[in-house]
């Protein structure tokens, strides 16, 4: 643990960034007559130091998203003296790392296959844990993106069998969907991607009404305002709050 006094310069920068982000979230909510309380902020801490995350925690931030299981676990252990902190797995999960994700994380945003779901179920059951999960969907059609293929409506019926089986797994609690939009110079270009996820959510609510599809994790530093306007309930913001990640 770093002494609070030595964190002052970092905290000052993050505090200013956080205030700006909060103002932008509030304005986006106002534009579409949503309450700020409808939006959950997950700070993407991938690549950032324990000290920088500690500074963010001391400013009141409590939800952090990691892309790599082992890197995140090092931070989870280093900051374990803080209570009330949630660690979200937002990156692709290799099957062999499913157990460590179940044991160390609070929520999974990136459930992208039935095979992974069955593996997570096995470890969650062994740990007597109920894990909240989001189904990652590739609605942009980018080949480099993970997730269930959902860029065309003709794919949606094919999803139902796998998603229904995932929904029946007793130790996984499906809460909604997640997607990543491609990076666009103009954030407005991401709007159709987010709208596609909302349409998929409506389709699944109608086809699998026994599942609560209420969460939509979409929107990052470059496009979170557009995502909020289109219905995001969770935004994943890293650089706009913590600053640029240091180069390796």
List keywords for this structure.
single chain, globular, TIM Barrel, alpha/beta
Detailed description of the structure:
The chain is of the alpha/beta class. It has a single domain (4-242), classed as TIM Barrel, CATH 3.20.20.10. Helices cover 42% and strands 17% of the residues. The chain contains nine helices and nine strands. Strands 1, 2, 3, 4, 5, 6, 7, 8 and 9 form a nine-stranded parallel sheet that branches. α1 (8-31) packs across α2 (50-58), α1 (8-31) packs parallel to α8 (224-230) and α4 packs across α5. The model has no long low-confidence stretch (mean pLDDT 95).
- Euclidean distance between termini CA atoms: 23 Å
What is the name of the CATH architecture? Answer: Alpha-Beta Barrel
CATH topology: TIM Barrel
The best one-word shape is: globular
Class based on secondary structure composition and strand pairing: alpha/beta
- The string of secondary-structure elements, in order, is HEHEHEHEHEEHEHEHEH
Residue share in β-strands: 15-25%
What is the arithmetic mean of pLDDT?
95
According to CATH, the homologous superfamily is Alanine racemase
Oligomer: single chain
The share of residues in helices is: 40-55%
Please give the radius of gyration in angstroms: 18 Å
Write down the CATH class. Answer: Alpha Beta
Q: How many β-strand stretches?
A: 9
Return residue spans where pLDDT drops below 50 for at least 5 consecutive residues.
none
SS element count, helices: 9
Largest sheet: 9 strands, parallel
Number of domains: 1
